[in-house]
Amino acid sequence: MTFQPDDTDRKILRELQADAGRSLDEIARAVGSSKTPVWNRIKRMREAGIIGQQTVMLDAEALGFEATFFVLIRTSEHEAEWQRKFLATLRARPEVQEAHRLAGDIDYILKVRVKNARAYDQFYQALISEVRIYNVTALLSMEEIKSTVALPL
Amino acid sequence: MTFQPDDTDRKILRELQADAGRSLDEIARAVGSSKTPVWNRIKRMREAGIIGQQTVMLDAEALGFEATFFVLIRTSEHEAEWQRKFLATLRARPEVQEAHRLAGDIDYILKVRVKNARAYDQFYQALISEVRIYNVTALLSMEEIKSTVALPL
DNA sequence: ACTGAAAGGGTTCCAGG
DNA sequence: CCTGGAACCCTTTCAGT
């Protein structure tokens, strides 16, 4: 199930992560190969789902998203039905950029991106009205020091 | 400093976030306009830095990155020099995908993506050997429920 | 498995409404 | 500010090595 990229595959993935907007020629040159072999490898990796969605990074601040919260959630409920509803709620809410189920005494962590603290409060009220939650801690980001989706290949 | 996208700009940004790999024609059709105006808007937003890097989402699990940690850091040091070194360390470490400075009693949160728990421990040892840190809590992700970089425009 | 080339399609730009 | 079209570049495929 684990895909084992060879050296050239890894170089291609690194280049695509860094800038997916370049031409095949440029990427081929960057990895020291030529168009067709690089094209075949990209095609294979796309079909295998290794390479997924292509997207653009937007400037969140400039677009008015000035508040990022990390939300630590403890719950006492662990039934299937509660969890199903909780996950559905998270997936339906576009301000939730990340959600992970955790090991340990904190059950879930969310990354929530909103325009301001009021918008966070609206999200919070909506969340606790939809599912029972035992304890919530919100950590407010003052400064985004680093943000990347690139894997350290 | 805050860019005010109009309705069409917002539609374009939504489409690009969802799939930046389509042709201008397709995007123009999706937003109910045509090539040239959409192209001009994208160009303007690129030049303004609203639209940044173009990238691909890779399948982390399939590539062997099976462990994600959220790391909560408390420090007693708040001098400029300590902070400079700490930030430089975080930025230099490719396994750190996110780093935020926080308000409140936890000073920093990191998202760290590694192949396994041993690789996390190596990162942790390297970090505490480079800068003094008062207290560290590592939260291990058991399940990635949701992960997106899209802003809720 | 790579090279080179050819066809089709897409991006970029410009003239005109 | 939009439409349509022309030129050029890139992607995609294929035959040859």
From TrEMBL, chains A, B:
Gene3D superfamilies: 3.30.70.920, Winged helix-like DNA-binding domain superfamily/Winged helix DNA-binding domain (1.10.10.10). SMART domains: HTH_ASNC. InterPro entries: ArsR-like_HTH (IPR011991), AsnC-type_HTH_dom (IPR000485), Dimeric_a/b-barrel (IPR011008), Tscrpt_reg_AsnC-like (IPR019888), Tscrpt_reg_AsnC/Lrp_C (IPR019887), Tscrpt_reg_HTH_AsnC-type_CS (IPR019885), WH-like_DNA-bd_sf (IPR036388), WH_DNA-bd_sf (IPR036390). The keyword Transmembrane helix does not apply. It holds the Pfam family AsnC_trans_reg. One of its GO terms (biological process) is regulation of DNA-templated transcription. The keyword Translocase does not apply. PROSITE patterns: HTH_ASNC_1, HTH_ASNC_2. This is Lrp/AsnC family transcriptional regulator. It comes from Rubellimicrobium rubrum.
